[in-house]
Amino acid sequence: MQNFVFHNPTKILFGRDTVAKIGPETAALGQKALLVYGRDSLKKSGIYKQICDSLSTAGVSVVEHSGVQSNPMLEHVRAGISKAREHDIDIIVAAGGGSVIDSAKAIAAGSVVAHDVWKFFNGKKSIKAALPIVTVLTLAAAGSEMNSGMVITNEKTRQKFGFGHRLLHPVTSILDPEVTFTVPPDYTAYGAIDAVAHVLEFYMTSRDTDTPVQCRLMEGLIQNSMEACERCLLDPQDYGGRANLMWTATLALNGLTGAGLGRVGFPMHMIEHSLSALYNVPHGAGLSVIIPGWLTWFCQQEEARVAQLGENIFPVEGYQRLTTSAMAERTITIFRNWFSKIESPVSLGELEIPPSDIPGIAQNALTLARFWRLNEYSQQTIEEILHLCK
Amino acid sequence: MQNFVFHNPTKILFGRDTVAKIGPETAALGQKALLVYGRDSLKKSGIYKQICDSLSTAGVSVVEHSGVQSNPMLEHVRAGISKAREHDIDIIVAAGGGSVIDSAKAIAAGSVVAHDVWKFFNGKKSIKAALPIVTVLTLAAAGSEMNSGMVITNEKTRQKFGFGHRLLHPVTSILDPEVTFTVPPDYTAYGAIDAVAHVLEFYMTSRDTDTPVQCRLMEGLIQNSMEACERCLLDPQDYGGRANLMWTATLALNGLTGAGLGRVGFPMHMIEHSLSALYNVPHGAGLSVIIPGWLTWFCQQEEARVAQLGENIFPVEGYQRLTTSAMAERTITIFRNWFSKIESPVSLGELEIPPSDIPGIAQNALTLARFWRLNEYSQQTIEEILHLCK
């Protein structure tokens, strides 16, 4: 096991009827809140009213900043920062999924400095302070509600960049599974795929193999994501399914899985971010295209790791013994088939991205590969992987 | 899944050469430290010197409070509180295992109030403040380094009582697996048993069965404890074994396993605490006596739970199908045999406690049962369980 620091101070309030706690949680930290959210769905579901009522009762004044898109955009973040400065905001309330929470984090960090927020993303400045953030989660997926990371797309440079900083941990996150009853099937599936992908990135790219604590945790989280997702698709109001998916997605990227693994990479996300940045593909849909292709490419180097995962989470019935190679292939097939089963795309073709676009996608991904120091990924390597995703 | 609050702000510094970080971590919080530790082993291993050097370099002055015993005693805690008041201590540094850290917690809470510290334990007062605590862990076992709990024995009333409060979370805990290289085989085993017991308590007493996230986490932690313990017994300087045991024991009682289970009980600990309080039995040794007997008794009510655990962590080879009853019995046998294998006692007889003592032990345990609101445990029930531990 490698040395690590684990420090996750975010408080989680989980369960039924917890949304109304947002007021007191916010009021303990600030009085003038910027309420960051997406679109009308929050209003339709009644969550918006619950949040506003709770904030108002707790004496918190609210300035709204709505319209966050999935794959959140830099310009919209900049507008939020202007608003936060103009209204002397002292706390950010995020109500949404990963995109909303990531936008809230960027606003929280960007509104306390004089320079442009993108300088944090391209590495020219580092975060020294941030406004406190509290969240009401509405989508089980990104894990941003209990971690220090954020991802924003610069629409001008077509870069979807992300990084983490300890000051970006939300102080409190409210996770009410009932809030996700209205998440449509496609985004329920994309969320589960995102959680699976987060775990896979750590599992596959760890250089340390003497990490049974982490491996067992990760294997369980993948199984949970898949099982819980299927329950939610079968019955969107299955509380247990929603609750298990929600908590699994949070644990999948809250620092626990990676603690002790040493330096890991996020190569599947690295390539997917280009699909999102260039074609505005939903993140989970992009991931289900990249994962099987990347795993196939990865098997050229670490077939045994892929086989080990399959052996532990997709056990072969009875006495049948497969070769490592066959087990690895079977594992990839199971993931691909499962993505198809939950109606997420598994090829660039399904996204209507022609093979002729591959060099351009690889070029875009290469910038992020360099920023994330994934130096083993060249233009040629990324193209090779993308050809396995056709 | 039941509603829950999860909030664990303790920062963990894990790995090789981390002990020397105690100085800066302490200096960030206080200037006058009470250094709480046990006996000579800390000095023999050189850890004591490392800690003192680091604290001194960081400009922290130190008052010593050594001599904490396993099953830490109230009088010794009271003496620590007097010292803390006398020297105007502003931070507690604990260097040891669960007993030392629990003593440190009791001193941290007791030294900021005028009343006697035992009033927290018998429920007459509640904690409203505490000095900050930082720890250097020297034994993988109790989990106190990353949780809010503490257990202290009142030697006069012969009560070993414990409870938790959020202000008792250590601010920082340093976990260097190499520090545990010198832990002798018996205490290595007792520590692993304590971790297994912590997980078993949650797993068995949860009233909610729709908790696959938690169940898989717990199953993995039991497997890890057992595997890692065997590695450490085989080679006390196996870094991977020590590291995996240490992190497993921490995760086994840091709040994660119980999040979502609803109200759980600690019945095996409840009964074991009486063995420790009355006979000063090492906690892990007492647990290995109680666990098989309690599980056997528990099978009268929830055989399926015991069988499920065994199915998942001790899979039966091939196609063999066991009845629920046989699988539950097999699970208990595997635990009992494993305790014996690692040379921990599995009967009251091995502890030289005669059956005639059972009523007295049960009477002692009953006080804690009432304090912990384990109302389903009568004198008769506890006696019945203890007879299964003969």
Note down, in words, how this protein is organized.
The structure is a homodimer of 390-residue chains. Chain A has 14 helices and 9 strands. Chain A is an alpha/beta fold and 390 residues long. Chain A folds into 2 domains: 11-178, Rossmann fold, CATH 3.40.50.1970; 185-387, Up-down Bundle (Dehydroquinate synthase-like, alpha domain). In chain A, strands 2-9-6-5-3-4 form a 6-stranded parallel sheet, sandwiched between helices. In chain A, strand 7 and strand 8 (159-164) form a beta hairpin. In chain A, helix 7 runs antiparallel to helix 8, helix 10 packs across helix 13 and helix 11 (283-313) crosses helix 12 (324-341). Chain A is globular, with a radius of gyration of 20 Å. The two termini of chain A are 37 Å apart. The model of chain A has no long low-confidence stretch (mean pLDDT 96). Chains A and B meet through strand 1, strand 2, helix 8 and helix 9 of A and strand 1, strand 2, helix 8 and helix 9 of B.
- CATH-assigned homologous superfamily of the largest domain in chain A: Dehydroquinate synthase-like - alpha domain
Strand order of the largest sheet of chain A: 2-9-6-5-3-4
Coarse shape of chain A: globular
What is the CA-CA span between the terminal residues of chain A? 37 Å
Structural class of chain A: alpha/beta
Summed up, the helix count of chain A is 14
Task: Describe the structure concisely.
Chain A is 49% helix and 12% strand. With 390 residues, the first copy, chain A, is of the alpha/beta class. In chain A, strand 7 and strand 8 (159-164) form a beta hairpin.
